[in-house]
Amino acid sequence: MIHPEERSLDRALDLATQSLAIELAGPTSPLHIYAAWILASAGLRDEAMDLLELASSDPAGSVNGPWASFLFHALAGNAERA
To answer: Which of 23, 37, 45, 55 is deepest in the core (most CB within 10 A)?
Structure first.
């Protein structure tokens, strides 16, 4: 049986690894969009919108910025901007 403290430590390490991956991905990585999708699916709408807002400022001009912006406005319920 896994001790509850071990589960907490494992969960903390998982979250730290995920946070690091998002930070290292840069501001407009598709990773932000995928992570936001998962957060929104889990009911964490505000957290998802934070990631999408970050990814929507795409200085490289890739598809990631407009895609993130569309999803951000869709989650915000703004049909005109989505």
So the answer is: 55
